[in-house]
């Protein structure tokens, strides 16, 4: 009943009722927006009125348009200074935000530029010479430009901190404060965050003026449009279980979430070895490779994207039908972000989470947050998977038959039809397309360090150590959202004041950064490969091979 009531309320709502000009309304129509989301409905009037706003809402709720439309409305085209600055935690989100603002501001001819780490800064400097009115960027690269004086933000009228909790979790607190201090005191500040840890509230108190607090509850997200399942099994059974479910469910477009870069790489390689069209997305890829992978996914050239949480942060791809959590996230909010990739625009989606027995507490924490129980899913048998794979192959055979030109190979066709029956030929073709032998391809998956047991307060350990996660500059900004290791453009110091962009996915790094596998810390000491007696000889990392059971 509540869902229907909300739908009815939104149906009557028109963007024209929010105080936007006709130019912006035309852009909205061109962009394909039909009705305002709750965050847009509440944020746009306040922002147009010049109020500071703290918006608590998850990814996929329409935040970009919520702050972007009022910003575009207020842009003075005769003013060639940067009038609006949007700070994003990752390059993917920054790029996506900039692209959406460009589309919305096209009719008004607003110049939007984006800067982020991992890309040629000289090209960015060249692009900045166009005097953009709106600049989107990641904290590290923005600060680099500010220090180089290639970006001047002393005329900024509106500052947006997008995914603020994620930026704090990635250790960007100092950078954010430095950026804010370079903006005028008389400015409008908009802050958006999925959660409201104390550090976010402190930013509100310190840098905002009587901010209006808007909260979009998790129950208002699209989780109702997602059928949520979980499969309980041992760690060494997860890969086989997942691929068999792929064969049964036949996902049109799917995202698989892994906890670390190493995990993503191994899963992507393993899926390719078993015949799936898959590719990985994580922070160690070059920007060119990342863009290529995303383009392949959006065009359905690959239909399974394996990604870390932050690599997929802000990712908005239409028609994602399934989300698979190979590793359950350590914090429940991440789960909501993940499944928010499917079940969009009124379409149904499916999520499947794979959990080992010692991770069931994390599953319950997720259910407590979403207020929805997941349905237990029985693992598919090898026979079920083979049947599913053959069924899926039948559709591919139809495409092959439609595309075939029999005239070119008529003589060979005649020979085969004389030698074999149509049933035999069809069976051979189907078997070839299905490629059932690849189901038996051995795949090696490295055992990950297990999640710590959640504490009775539902928060788990939050003081480092077993939490994992790559933190920048010690505890700066740490302890907010758990193990949300990411990618993007964070920087580490080499001791001489020089800064560099680095990966944030909790994977391999350099210059003393912690690496998954040996858990090397910044001080050079190992945090994992120690014997139980507190020192002694290094312990060999256990690896295993997932194989089909006889």
Adjacency order of strands in the biggest sheet: 3-4-2-5-6-1-7
Cα(first) to Cα(last) distance is 51 Å
For CATH, the homologous superfamily of the domain at 12-216 is named as P-loop containing nucleotide triphosphate hydrolases
CATH topology of the domain at 12-216, by name, is: Rossmann fold
Structure overview:
With 550 residues, the chain is of the alpha/beta class. Among the domains are: 12-216, Rossmann fold; 222-381 and 441-445, Rossmann fold (3-Layer(aba) Sandwich). 37% of the residues lie in helices and 14% in strands. The protein contains 18 helices and 18 strands. It has helices spanning 2-12, 22-31, 38-48, 63-74, 91-104, 121-128, 139-148, 164-169, 173-181, 198-207, 238-249, 261-273, 287-298, 332-339, 360-370, 382-403, 410-419, 422-434, and strands at 53-56, 84-87, 112-115, 134-137, 158-161, 188-193, 212-215, 226-232, 254-257, 278-281, 304-307, 322-325, 349-355, 375-376, 443-446, 491-493, 499-501, 543-546. The strands form four sheets. The chain has a seven-stranded parallel sheet with strand order 3-4-2-5-6-1-7, with helices on both faces. The chain has a seven-stranded parallel sheet with strand order 10-11-9-12-13-8-14. Strands 15-18 form a two-stranded antiparallel ribbon. The termini are far apart.
């Amino acid at each position: 009943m509540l869902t229907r009531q909300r739908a009815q309320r939104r149906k009557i709502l028109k963007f024209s009722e929010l105080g936007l000009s006709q130019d912006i309304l035309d852009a909205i129509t061109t962009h394909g927006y039909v009705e305002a989301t709750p965050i847009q409905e509440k944020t746009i009037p306040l922002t147009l009125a010049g109020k500071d706003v703290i918006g608590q809402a998850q990814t996929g709720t329409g935040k970009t348009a919520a702050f972007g439309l009022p910003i575009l409305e207020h842009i003075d085209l005769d003013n060639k200074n940067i009038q609006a600055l949007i700070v994003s935690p990752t390059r993917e989100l920054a790029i996506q935000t900039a692209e959406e603002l460009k589309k919305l501001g096209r009719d008004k001819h607003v110049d939007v530029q984006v800067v982020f780490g991992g890309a040629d800064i000289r090209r960015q400097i060249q692009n900045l010479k166009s005097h953009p009115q709106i600049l989107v960027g990641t904290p590290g690269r923005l600060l680099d430009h500010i220090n180089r004086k290639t970006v001047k933000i002393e005329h900024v009228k509106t500052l947006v901190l997008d995914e603020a909790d994620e930026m704090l979790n990635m250790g960007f607190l100092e950078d954010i404060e430095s950026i804010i201090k370079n903006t005028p005191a008389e400015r409008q500040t908009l802050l958006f965050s999925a959660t409201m840890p104390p550090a976010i509230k402190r930013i509100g108190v310190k840098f905002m003026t009587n901010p209006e607090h808007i909260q979009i509850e998790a129950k208002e997200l699209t989780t109702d449009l997602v059928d949520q399942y979980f499969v309980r099994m041992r760690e060494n059974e997860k890969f086989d279980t997942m691929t068999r479910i792929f064969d049964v469910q036949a996902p049109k477009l799917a995202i698989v979430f892994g906890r670390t870069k190493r995990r993503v790489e191994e899963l992507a390689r393993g899926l390719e070895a078993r015949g799936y069209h898959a590719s990985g997305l994580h922070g160690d890829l070059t920007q060119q490779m990342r863009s290529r992978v995303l383009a392949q996914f959006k065009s359905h050239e690959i239909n399974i994207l394996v990604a870390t949480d932050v690599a997929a942060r802000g990712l908005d791809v239409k028609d994602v039908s399934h989300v698979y959590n190979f590793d359950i996230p350590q914090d429940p909010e991440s789960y909501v972000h993940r499944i928010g990739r499917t079940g969009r625009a009124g379409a149904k989606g499916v999520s499947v989470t794979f959990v080992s027995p010692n991770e069931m507490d994390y599953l319950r924490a997720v259910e407590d947050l979403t207020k929805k129980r997941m349905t237990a899913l029985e693992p598919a048998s090898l026979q079920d998977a083979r049947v599913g794979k053959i069924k899926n192959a039948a559709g591919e055979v139809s495409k092959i038959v439609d595309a075939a030109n029999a005239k070119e190979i008529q003589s060979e066709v005649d020979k085969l039809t004389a030698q074999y029956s149509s049933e035999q030929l069809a069976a051979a073709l189907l078997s070839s397309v299905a490629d059932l032998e690849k189901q038996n391809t051995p795949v090696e998956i490295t055992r990950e360090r297990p999640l710590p047991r959640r504490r009775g307060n539902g928060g788990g350990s939050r003081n480092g150590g077993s939490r994992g996660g790559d933190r920048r500059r010690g505890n700066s900004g740490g302890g907010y959202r758990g193990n949300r290791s990411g990618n993007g453009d964070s920087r580490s110091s080499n001791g001489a004041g020089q800064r560099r962009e680095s990966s944030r996915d909790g994977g391999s790094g350099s210059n003393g950064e912690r690496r998954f596998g040996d858990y090397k810390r910044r001080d050079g000491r190992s945090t994992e490969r120690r014997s139980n007696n507190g020192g002694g000889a290094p312990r060999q990392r256990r690896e295993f091979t997932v194989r089909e059971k006889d």
